[in-house]
Design a protein that fits this description.
By secondary structure, this protein is mainly alpha-helical. It has helices at 18-26, 33-37, 41-48, 61-68, 72-81; strands at residues 2-5, 8-11. A two-stranded antiparallel sheet has the order 1-2. Helix 3 crosses helix 4. The longest helix has 10 residues, at 72-81.
């Protein structure tokens, strides 16, 4: 999969630990991609970074490329939309303990 970003074709490879990387970088999971993307180019860069080779648009260059390209955010949204939907973990109900 590829994404054209500021006139540059970049290879996109989904990581196996996407949520872990996103939570570490942004505090949000992949399910909260709209929140991440609406927070600015630096957060959008953090959302896209796990998909890129580490040498592709290093440092602030990725955020600059995103900020300069009006098609960047829709492109990032498409990448996330094409990901398989992770299973929602079941949460066991717990009783509140009172003293």
């Amino acid at each position: 999969m590829n994404l054209t970003l500021a006139g540059r074709d970049v290879k996109i490879t989904p990581p196996s630990n996407l949520d872990q990387q996103l939570i570490a970088a942004t505090g949000c999971s992949a399910r909260e991609i709209d929140t991440i993307l609406s927070a600015g180019a630096d957060r959008a860069a953090a959302a896209l970074r796990p998909f890129l080779d580490r040498n592709e648009l290093p440092g602030i260059e990725l955020a600059r490329a995103i900020a300069s390209d009006p098609e960047a955010l829709p492109g990032i949204r498409r990448i996330y939309a094409e990901l398989p939907d992770p299973a929602v973990p079941e949460v066991a109900a717990t009783k509140a303990v009172t003293k």
